[in-house]
Amino acid sequence: MSMTPAFSFVTTPDLDDQVRPYTDLNDPEMAGIIAHINEEHIDELLGFLRAFSPLSAAELEHTEAQLTAIYAEGICLQAKPLATRPIDSKDRHRQPQSFFIGFAAPLTQVDELQEQYILLRQRADKKLGKKTIKLTRQVFVVERSYKVSENMLRLELSMDSQNHRHDSSSPDTVPTNEAGYAYLFDLAHNARTASSSQPSKNTTQPARAQVYYTLRKAWRSADGVRAWVDVFLHGDTSGGNWAMALQAGDTVVTKREFPEKVAHLHTGQTLLIVDETSMPTAARLLELWDNPTPPLIICVTQDAADQEYFDDITLSIDARDSSKNSARRHIDRHFTVLPMIMNPASVGQNVAPQIDRQLADYLTKQPLQIDKVWGALEAKTAKALRPLLQKRLGLERTDVVVKVYWRHD
Question: What gap in Å lies between CA 261 and CA 401, rounded to an integer?
């Protein structure tokens, strides 16, 4: 047991009786976990402060959140004023403050951290009235698959409203009007299914048992729901091999689902930065676009032919203005795509400087005031790109959402 320094205790309904001291988790992976959360989940940490700390909305508008420790009983967050915040001698919250936020149940082993972190996020999102991650098992049936660009395979899935195979699967829960809604697919399910149907065949378990793919599109049909999932095929990968092996009639299982953070894109001039793994998210975002200003898109691919992915995408325009023709809710190609074709040898390398130069060249010729950014790329590039964009565009960290969608092993 170890005592913590003067933390404010933030109670939650099920932890009112929690007392200090807190229990250290002596695990060599903990430092890496904390660093990952601080790099990739900053918006969630700010959400925890909004939901559970006494800081006001005005204070949090100029606050940086950092995870400083994880204990068996909960997490410790530091709320630090942003360097750009005006100095106010009367502001009693100008100095960094630390807050302890308790888990629903104390950890007995590090493997339980993910579940408790998700529960904490669910509680925070519910309190804030936000959409949240769901631990829901869904079962879809493969209808067919086909290429939609040189290296992009589309899986067309269905879920029958009358005959879905598991009680937990429900077409009513599949989001048909969400952009950037991700499912965690259980790749091992199909390996197990193949083994049981062909006992004599030596079926190899995938290197990765599960992988996230964005729901490219979903829509209601007469007998249930239909959905597209687009899978980028890039070499010998667990996800690509899984997708190519699927046949009509096979079932695919999802274990978890969560909404992407795109609400900040509803106002101002936006910039989207995508590669082959995040193009499906951007495509659906464009089809459901809820901003009067079209976005600028930087699209990074290894193969020039994959740039065609956006050719048939139309930008959705909400025709609420009565002076407009309400029947014309979609107009073609009102967004600009800046293609970047990268040498395949650069896969997994940090290409953030090239992206930054591409943006700089464009803004020199076509001056724009970029207000918000959303992107999703490889881990090294995403991490390096965030500060470059903040500096070039003069934006706060919360306005530059650049996610890690994959890691080069």
Answer: 8
| Angle of CA points 317, 318, 323, to nearest 5° | 105
Alpha carbons 394 and 399: distance in angstroms, whole number = 10
What three-state secondary structure class fits 65? strand
CA dist., res. 384 & res. 253, Å (int) = 34
Q: Residue 125's Cα: distance from chain center in Å?
A: 15
Question: Which residues 6+ apart lie within 8 Å of 70 measured at CB?
Answer: 25, 30, 33, 34, 76, 113
CA 245 to chain centre: 26
Counting beta carbons within 10 angstroms of the beta carbon of residue 178, is it exposed (0 to 12), middle (13 to 18) or buried (19 or more)?
buried
Tens of pLDDT along 360-400? 999 999 989 999 999 999 989 999 999 999 999 999 888 99
Q: Using an 8 Å Cβ cutoff, are 371 and 268 in contact? A: yes
pLDDT band at 58 (very low <50, low <70, confident <90, very high): confident
Contact predicate 225/176, CB 8 Å: yes
Can you tell me the distance from the alpha carbon of 197 to that of 201, in angstroms, rounded to the nearest whole number?
9
Question: Is residue 202 within 8 Å of residue 176, measured between CB atoms?
Answer: no
pLDDT digits (tens, 9 = 90+) for 95-107: 888 999 999 999 9
Span 305-309, mean pLDDT?
Answer: 94
Alpha-carbon span 139 to 159, nearest angstrom: 7
Stretch (H or E) spanning 286: helix 279-287
pLDDT: which is higher, 258 or 309: 309
Residue 392's identity, in one-letter code, is: R
Residues 6 or more apart whose Cβ sits within 8 Å of residue 222: none
176 pLDDT band, cuts 50/70/90, is confident
Amino acid in position 227: A
pTM as predicted? 0.79
Q: Tell whether the model's pLDDT for residue 402 goes beyond 90.
A: yes
Helices (H) and strands (E) in the chain, counts: 9, 17
DSSP, collapsed to helix, strand or coil, labels residue 377 as: strand
